[in-house]
Amino acid sequence: MVCTLHFQVFVTADYVAEDPERFERNIYLLRKQAVNNMAKQSVDCYICSLSTTTIVYKGQFNTHQLYLYYDDLRNPEFITHIALVHSRFSTNTLPSWPRAQPNSFFYRMVAHNGEINTLRGNINLMRAREGVMSSSLYEDDLGKLYPVVEEGLTDSGCFDNVCEFLVKAGQRSLPEAAMTMVPEAWEKDEKRILSALLAFSDGRYVGAILDRNGLRPARYYLTADDHLYLSSEVGVNDHDVESIVKKVCEIALLNQYFIRTHHRTRKEKESEISCKARKDMCCTSRLHRL
């Protein structure tokens, strides 16, 4: 196995404690500028993550090798209440360290099982929209985040770029961004051709959403000790049958399923309604128009 060189850096500022959201926005801007500059200079480097809420561990490994490669994952003092794990064989792109999933928040916010068949059209439309975008959070710095979709990524990576942009530069929560990009079937929606189980997290929310056709498997278990396990396959985790209080295997029931970091589980319709109730829908359609 050819191993890459890894570095871990720490970034801070004197206003972190007072304004953590501002700091998160600024390090997102820092990362995007670094990625764009490295691309212009043909520097072969990939930034796995730069965030106050998540760390991305990735590599061109099988699942057992990943666990052995990173000491953090074996440290008993290393604890998290959310973990998003993705392992797959590259089918239509050459395997590489940057393309390994979790890709950029796994890819950086999204782990994707499936394929997006309108990829080039989606990228071109996103580039076209950059000319009319505005952000009250970034204002004149918004152009420094372009291109929103970085070059050389897989369909999953491109999706992740846009999802992250909607959350960091827009006024959406991560569940809202997911519902925007993978909407329920409606005749007047812009057509999106994809087969996808998309799991996502930003360290605050974790959830999953299926494409409108339900072309990928998904199932989840809720245990008596308030753990939720969601996977695309059977047998990912060994569970004591008596500890399972709910098991859902019907993919039609997995439209949106979110849980918050304060450990309250929120079912799909409750989450969808809460997103819609936050703002007047006419105002929302203007603010969030893609």
User: What share of residues are in beta strands?
Assistant: 5-15%
Instruction: Look at the helices and sheets and give the structural class.
Output: alpha+beta
The low-confidence parts are: 102-106, 268-273, 275-290
CATH architecture of the domain at 20-201: 4-Layer Sandwich
CATH topology of the domain at 20-201: Glutamine Phosphoribosylpyrophosphate, subunit 1, domain 1
Largest sheet: 5 strands, antiparallel
What's the count of strands? 8
Number of helices: 7
In the CATH scheme, the class of the domain at 20-201 would be Alpha Beta
- Rg estimate, integer Å: 19 Å
- Give the overall shape: globular
Strands of the largest sheet, in order across it? Answer: 1-2-3-7-8
Helix content: 25-40%
- The average pLDDT value, as a whole number, equals 77
- Taking the alpha carbons of the first and last residues, their distance comes to 42 Å
CATH superfamily of the domain at 20-201: Aminohydrolase, N-terminal nucleophile (Ntn) domain
Give the SSE order as H and E letters.
Answer: HHEHHHEEEEEEEHH
Main features:
290 residues, alpha+beta, Glutamine Phosphoribosylpyrophosphate, subunit 1, domain 1, 3-stranded antiparallel sheet, 7 helices, 27% helix, disordered C terminus, FMN, iron-sulfur, glutamate synthase (NADH) activity, glutamine amidotransferase, glutamate biosynthesis
